[in-house]
Amino acid sequence: MKTIPPPCLEPESGPKYWRSLEQLADAPEFRQWAEREFPSGASEMSDPVSRRNFVKIMSASFLLAGLGATGCRRPVENIYPYAKMPLDYVHGVPQYFATAMPTRRTAIPLVVKSNDGRPTKIEGNPDLPDSNGGTDHLTQAAVLGLYDPDRAMQFKRNGSGEARNTALDALTAISKGLGDGTGLAFLLEQSSSPSRNRLQKAISEKFPNARWNVYEPVDLSSLPRLAATLAYSAPVEPYYKLDEAGVILSLDCDFIGSEENAFNNIRRFAKGRHLDGKESSMSRLYTVESLFTLTGANSDHRLRVPPSMIVPVLARLALNVLASSAIDGQLQALAAPAQAHDGWIVPCAKDLKANPGKSLVMAGYRLPLAAHLLVVAMNEALGAVNHTVEYHQTPDSKEGTISELAAALNAGQVQTLVILGGNPAYNAPVDLDWAKAQAKAKTVVRLGYYEDETSWNDALHAEKQWDLPAAHFLEAWGDARTADGTLVPIQPLIEPLFGGLTDLEVLALIGGLTPSSPYDIVRQTFQGIGGDSENNWRKFLHDGFLADSASSKATAQYDAGELTKALGQLKPGSAPTSGKLDVVFYRDAKMDDGRYNNNGWLQELPDPITKITWDNAVMISPKTAKELGVFTERNAQSQKFFNYIVEIKLGSRTVRGPVWVQPGMADDTIGLALGYGREKTGRVGHGTGFNAYSLRTSEAYYASGAELTNTRNTEYELANAQSHWHMEGRPVVREANLDQFRKQPAFAKGMEAPANHDPLYPNPLDVTKQNALHQWGMSIDLNRCVGCSACMIACQSENNIPIVGKEMVGKSREMHWIRLDRYYSGPDEDPQAVTQPMLCQHCESAPCESVCPVNATSHDDEGLNVMTYNRCVGTRYCSNNCPYKVRRFNFFDYNRRPLNHLYKSPLVMETDGEYELLRWLKNPDKGNLPETDWQLAKLVKNPDVSVRMRGVMEKCTLCLQRIEQAKIAAKVKARDTDHVRLSEKEGTVPKTACQQACPAEAIIFGDISDPESSVSKAKEQERTYSVLEFLLTKPRCTYLAKVRNPNQEMPDYKEHSMPYTTQEFQKARGASAEDEGGAR
Amino acid sequence: MSDFFPKWTNNLPRNIIIGALLTGTAVTAGVTYYFTPKYTRVGYQPIQPVAFPHSVHATQLGIDCRYCHNGVEKSWYSNIPATSVCMNCHNQVLKDDDRLAVVRESFASGKPIPWVQIHKLPDYAYFNHSVHVNRGVSCVECHGQINHMDEVYHAKPLSMSFCLDCHRDPARHLRPLDKITDLDWKPASEEAQLKNGADYVHDWKVQSLQNCSTCHR
């Protein structure tokens, strides 16, 4: 029988939280769809095999199973201890090593856990001065990339495998015939490695005529560096201190989501937004952008303008901020089209100026050089320098671009081309026609992590091409510098699985330098920086960084000359129309520039804003969608939502992709995420999305004059996690404005109707609480959470959560234990957005427990709601009864089956050329994956967490394994004393994986029976509330309500004078805002 | 009615009931005895590649368990010693004995000795050696008197109820920490064990942990 949901306070009219446009439309089909336990399709058997056939097959397989009766004997298993015991090794005790993950021009300092020789979990290194141990989702997912069965495994010459030594000898031979380097060209990725810098210099001395070129398809740091360098006449780069800022203005700069060093930006931004009580203050964020980004979602005021209008808006802002009159004329010409936005711009500029030394302006990587110069000038005028932004000295680099290299190749000036990393055949600007250019080189040496578009193939074969497999950063030695310049080691945890090389190694071999082993190279570089004492080196490796090696602050004088010059080259843009659309090419939140295309965790991670998985889409605003007639529709037969495939024409080039109507996008603008639509990639990335690079020329990240036509003939389903699991408009996220919070700090309390009944479920903890040593709980600060999704991947990595594939996500069968809910509110053209991490709430009186017929889910004495997988029979009653919809069911054996063969019976399935049933009879422990995949897939698993099989329910355990390990460690230490309680003061309370990964420190876990613990203190804050309080489930996981900080002088303040939830509930109760000063 | 049912059918219901009861009892008894770890595991004694007598090493020579199983106090896993540990003594003692040929060969070649696993828990049960041996539970509780075995066999059932027996009533099984690896140690009397055990439970804050999460993750 269907339970009627309790009365819901959502008003019929007025603004309300919504999660997708379909919901806002409030169609009757949607209501029906939403009220189901799982959305349509998730819980139905949609197997093409009918039930009747299924029974037939099953009875046949039972018969066959009888043949295996010999299996009653206990199988003999062997234990293989070492022949010679390594020192300091205890089997079963994980080891931790400090290392770092190199990013474009920075690095993320890490501590990586190794279980018996295999790296399994990546965590941030909290010991660095510029780190809190948080990371980002890309870093968390890197460990899966290490064990990717599709990565390049072989050394290849013209496409056919060669021995490693043959390849290395060939490199040496190439090096000997290079003369003075004429005809030698390198194409590199950006790097912060001092070793690479050193090798480049050494090779340049040996081969003075060699060409050096660097290419990043999405270059995050070159323009800000160049602008700062020009403005200060010294090689410097900006370093933002968002925590010091009171007012931040971001101009198309998604510093939370996609800029360089985003995880540190998040940490500092969250610190600036932190509220302790009503006395504390928080920063204010203004955003001007075309896309709807995470930064926009977190801003207090957001101006959405097409990309061609961003520079005019910036110019207008500059006019209001800068006092100088020298460039006023130039600015005025540029700023003219933005006059319409004066209502927004003037008070924003006023706010910036009112906070000298505490305001900060940031420009995104997509903006032109003049815009970056203008931002430097504004920061200088606002007194931000050395307060909210520092300029750090940076090594001067003079490499060429990929366009110069292509020109040289086409002119026949390059005989030997060395491509280290990157994938230019896929992502080079389309006007360069890279494939043809690359084919002009006589010899190509290519180091790549995958066999991809740039690997040897018919289209681009040179006379001779060597494809070398690259080593993962967890496999080989290296070094790097973090964003603040601190030197960090890249220390391997495992031998290269497939003998891969690093860029350092290949450079040394091509340059004929000794030593050529990466360890020796890095060691030698370190000697030059940290001294040659063995102790320094060991400390460096142990700590994971070299103390006091951060780059020094520059003290150069600002010079406005370059700005005038650059402004002269800018042409004022014209606003787009629906016939001539603006295009934004952007770095995808998950695929980056395409480099993580074959990473299943990232493919399945919902985009932080759109919540699309496994695809990119053509983003357009609701208004433009209506004009062009491309709204999301529903198929009359299959009852499924679909999107049209549209064709975008830009100049003479076209690309086709599914359209996605994105609330909050600028009108007449198309957003295209890069990194999808790969022609040659692994099995995971194959067939995902469309290739936006095929439209992009070397001009920039913006284009204008695009035409969009609806092909009308193709329906495409996007696997979207957005509309699933929505919350029926109850006050799940609660928020207030800062002044309301100050007036009534406990605004979040009592926003819901009081419970109209006694508790439905007995509270098992009432009896057992007394016996337990700890009581675990969690507090999540929505004011700090920015929605970056690092926690989701951290959880996936820690808890062996499988990926399920696009088809399954389409049926809402994704397995994430923690998800990021994103709610929109307000008008769909320009909504506010909030994000909320949602995980098992660990209710004290948990509805799931009372309906489990086999006691598979129960409470332990310390307040955890635990799942015992081996008891679970898969009734799914618990999931049905869970008000938070956080339980996940294994509809298939995701861990042991290839995702494209989920439905196939083992009777008809062949793996490695052998019938699956026979394979199973020979070795029942083996999965249905091919042998090599199976061997690699096992390595990434955390041995401390059960791998769940088909038919089992699972959910967040609050990282039970970490708690148990901490308790065991305390008991082992206590021996015959009673000092067994974990305490935060002694640092023995573990962190959950999500908490550990969170750069914003939004998640706090700990012992709530200890009044001194930080979680107890967080829960004491007045903003604390529990989700769906009126059900009296008493969640152990509580939230701290969000506070926004709007500026009263802004034109949109009328609508934002009170966040929508507050308005909504006051309306429902008939209380006036003036009397109450907030909800009661 | 006799046309339909002959006379002997009068007894049929009774016979069926008795028969069903007897069969039921036999099946229940059979399953309880033959299908539980008490029967299926206890007594399992595979032939090991090297005839290693614990009786000689532990009892006659008095080598402590932890000389070879040195990970037991630090890890969830109590390790089988590496060949190099055997060779610490056997490069002097019984240097050329035929029975040790496998060991010498392993040490020379670096290939491990393929010992046969005896004690094994299911993967979903997370047993931890270190927390038991550091908190008063002796090896003998689960492994039996290994120190008197010539060839190791499975002495206790290691079933879930076996674990719970102790977890429900730890006082009966705890002993002083210096007697953990003394497998021959016996409490002075049952009363003494109960009294001392209760003291340990109190003084060391030993909890009677019966939550699912204690062993299953």
Give an overview of the whole structure.
The complex is a heterodimer of chains A (1080) and B (217). The model of chain A is unreliable at 1-15, 66-71 and 1071-1080 (pLDDT under 50). The radius of gyration of chain A is 29 Å and the shape is globular. In chain A, helix 6 runs parallel beside helix 17 (503-510) and helix 10 runs antiparallel to helix 11 (328-335). Helix content of chain A is 28%, strand content 19%. Chain A is an alpha/beta fold. In chain A, strands 7-6-18-17-16-8-9 form a seven-stranded mixed sheet. By secondary structure, chain B is an all-alpha fold. In chain B, 42% of the residues lie in helices and 1% in strands. The model of chain B has no long low-confidence stretch (mean pLDDT 91). In chain B, helix 5 crosses helix 6 (101-109). The chains are: A alpha/beta (1080), B mainly alpha (217). At the A-B interface, strand 2 and helix 31 of A face helix 5, helix 6, strand 1 and helix 11 of B. Strand 2 of chain A pairs antiparallel with strand 1 (115-116) of chain B.
The overall average pLDDT of chain A, rounded, is 85
Q: In one word, what is the shape of chain A?
A: globular
Number of DSSP E strands of chain A:
43
Which structural class should the secondary elements of chain A be placed in?
Answer: alpha/beta
Query: So how many helices of chain B?
Result: 11
Count of individual helical segments of chain A: 36
What's the gyration radius of chain B in Å? 25 Å
- Between the first and last Cα atoms of chain A, what is the distance in angstroms? 35 Å
Largest sheet of chain A: 7 strands, mixed
Largest sheet data of chain B: none
Provide the structure class of chain B.
Answer: mainly alpha
In the predicted model, the low-confidence regions of chain B spanning at least 5 consecutive residues are none
Beta-strand fraction estimate of chain A: 15-25%
